Amino acid sequence: MSYSSLSSVPLSRDASDISIHISNDSSPLLDGALNTVHLVLSTQSKAIAYLANQYRKSDWSRQQMKRALRVMNNGLNAGGKIVVSGIGKSYKIAAKTVATLNSLSVQAALLHPSEALHGDLGIIREERGDVLVLISASGNTAELINLLQYVPECVPVILMSCSRQSQLSRNPRVLAMLYAELPKRLAEKNLYGLSAPTISTTLCLTLLDATSMALAELYMNDLSLRKKRFGDRHPGGAIGAETMKDRAMAFAQLQSSEPASTSASNSLSNSSGDYPEKSVSETSEELAEEDALTMADLVLLNKIRTSNNRVTLRALPENDELEMATLMITYDYILIQGDENEKDDQASSKTHITHALDSKAAQEIYRSSKLQGDDWQETRWKLEEALLEVSM
Question: What's the whole-model pTM score?
Answer without folding.
Answer: 0.63
